[in-house]
Amino acid sequence: MGNPHIVVIPYPAQGHVIPFMELSQCLVKQGFKITFVNTEYNHKRVLKALRGNINLGGEISLVSLPDGLEACGDRNELGKLSKAIFQVMPGKLEELIDRINMTEEEKITCIITDWSMGWALEVAEKMKIRRAIYWPAAAAILCSLISIPKLLGDGIIDGDGEIIYHKPFSYCVAI
């Protein structure tokens, strides 16, 4: 068996793709082989941006899957994009993994997915592949998101995110 092989799946937005590519490059330095999955739309953008100037080496393979939107679909409508992704990409990811796993050397050993692409965790579990979530943004944002249920439960914010009771700041950011 060759190097451990990881499928990396960022959410299709620049602020997600770039940190995932940086993570992939770090993993390659540690001996991992990477299959980097973009949507077809972003894949074309990445290839155009690379213009052959950056050598990804043989350890990072760039692949694409359809995002479920028409070619002229507005990918800035994140709700619509996320819904289309959820409907189309899980099946396409399974097909990709099946193709890769046909050779013993290339078998996928792990999937690292964006927090916003949690459906990929279900695919990994179904296919008995190790899985991990990567958060590409600031840790403070993640802490805030994780704290929302507690803030709602404690009556600090209401369902619309409005502050309804002010307590000391240190309490609000605690998890």
Characteristics of this structure?
175 residues, alpha/beta, five-stranded parallel sheet, globular
Helix/strand/pairing category = alpha/beta
Placed side by side, the strands forming the largest sheet appear as 3-2-1-4-5
Number of separate structural domains: 2
The separation of the N and C termini measures 42 Å
At the first level of CATH, the class of the largest domain is: Alpha Beta
In one word, what is the shape? Answer: globular
The helix tally amounts to 6
Q: Based on DSSP secondary structure assignment, what is the total number of beta strands?
A: 5
CATH architecture of the largest domain: 3-Layer(aba) Sandwich
Helix-residue proportion? 40-55%
Q: How do the helices and strands follow one another from N- to C-terminus?
A: EHEHEHEHEHH
Low-confidence segments, given as residue ranges, are: 168-175
Any idea what the CATH superfamily of the largest domain is called?
A: Glycogen Phosphorylase B
What summary fits the major beta sheet? 5 strands, parallel
Oligomer: single chain
CATH topology descriptor of the largest domain: Rossmann fold
Strand content: 15-25%
Radius of gyration, CA atoms, in whole angstroms: 19 Å
What do the pLDDT scores average to? 80
